[in-house]
Amino acid sequence: MKILHCALAAFYIDNYGYQENILPKIHKLQGHTVKIVASTETFINNGKLGYIEAGSYINEHGIEVTRIPYTSFLPHFAAIKLRSYDNLYKELVDFKPDLIFLHDVQFLDAFVIAKYLRKNPSVRLVADGHADYINSARNWFSLEILHKIIYRRCVKALLPFTEVFYGTLPARMVFFNEVYQIPEEKIRFLPMGADDSVFDRANSVDIRRRMRGELRLQDDDFVVITGGKIDKNKKIDELISSVKRMRDPKLKLIIFGSIADDSCLNENDLHDKRIQFIGWQNADRIYDLLLMSDLGVFPGTHSVLWEQTVGVGLPALFRSWEGMYHVDVGGNCLFLQGGTEMEITDALTKILTDREFYEKMKDAAQTAGVTQFSYSQIARRSLNLMGTDRVSEAVFCDD
Questions:
Q1: Long-range interactions of 342-347: CB distance < 8 A, separation 24+
Q2: Which residues have a Cβ under 8 Å from the Cβ of 179 and sit 6 or more positions away?
Q3: What is the CATH number of the domain that holds 223?
Q4: CA-wise closest residue to 345 among 356, 354, 336
């Protein structure tokens, strides 16, 4: 099958572990012919968003990526905000896809996609969604104008042609329905996950030994890991304060990622020999770090690291957010109501002092977590459209 992945509603970043990176990679590994059409927005200068030149190249997975320019028919600021492009129709005609996979739907050139599908009715269309009430539509103009008027019209143009709209979180399924008025029967759950093509749990003992050696950690250290794009909403400062408060010499904290300008972290936070900040890590190495660790802790807003943590079989602490309880696969995690220093301390104390409790978390993580959040399985589900996910059956029920 020829699959065209369109990453036109936001940035597209090479060498990262986002869904728009991993799904095309797995689809290619599963024998499909794959191409990516993307915006020119990406990370430059150590994790800051910026723009690169339009053009085509082969990415790190051997997939052709074409970055198309924003349209010249609108003022540049409007073209960027509304996501309107030149040359998208030509890319569709030249590639002749059997299936188009849209990574998010908030772009004006949804009308171009609809035009192409009207002329090519045999081409299939699926779309996913990454917008929810936490990361999007956070002020009146964004919700009422951008999302409920402009982007809703984009979705309405796509609706007759779209087989399914995948919410990548249960909360995002609700956003699809409430904001864009997509019928419930067209919405399903497609989680993000762990890229099981780059790690092998059978080698986890060797990975643990090697990575702990590199980071000067002992085998009997209890290693907590956290990371990602570290901004004030991730509440990593609360986790650091908790680890410092506990003073357990065997409790170690590894932090990776890029620090945003609005982060609460400063150098003084890291002046503890049990805490290491190791900076940005590539996607493959992140999996090694997760496999090396004993517990993932994410006391703030959601990131794809939540699903990656579950997918490698690592027990975790997650911040409690409505519509994001899918990461609990039967006792693998605990939820933090506020993500405060004291709450994290209480949870860590429970885990460190009750070995039986921790082993039950670990067992659930390494059985159900690994199977439910495998990208090789998620990639197949994204195409065959068979069945209804158990989360989909309940997410729209009244409380």
A1: 342/242, 344/238, 344/239, 344/242, 344/297, 344/299, 344/317, 345/242, 345/245, 345/246, 347/317
A2: 131, 137, 143, 147, 148, 151, 152
A3: 3.40.50.2000
A4: 336
Q: Are residues 237 and 308 in the same domain?
A: yes
Q: What is the pLDDT of residues 177-221, one digit of tens each?
A: 999 999 999 999 999 999 999 988 889 999 999 999 999 999 999
Q: Over the range 233-264, which residues count as b (16 or more CB within 10 Å of their CB) and which as e?
A: bbbbbbbbbbbbeeeeeebbbbbbbbbbeebb
Q: Are residues 166 and 246 in the same domain?
A: no
Q: How many domains is the chain built from?
A: 2
Given a contact cutoff of 8 angstroms between Cβ atoms, the answer to whether 87 and 55 are in contact is no
Domain hosting residue 320, numbered range: 201-373
Distances (CA, A) of 62 to 53, 93, 101, 105, 215: 20, 22, 18, 26, 32
167 and 103 share one domain: yes
Is the same domain home to 131 and 150?
A: yes
Task: Tell me the pTM.
Answer: 0.89
User: Hey, how many other C-beta atoms are within 10 angstroms of the C-beta on 159?
Assistant: 18
Structure-block tokens of residue 371? 């199977």
What pLDDT, in 10s, does the model give residues 321-361? 999 999 999 999 999 999 999 999 999 999 999 999 999 99
Question: Is residue 125 domain-shared with residue 173, that is, in the same domain?
Answer: yes
CA distance 304 to 67: 24
Query: Is 104 in the same domain as 183?
Result: yes
Tell how strand 124-129 and strand 162-167 pair up: parallel
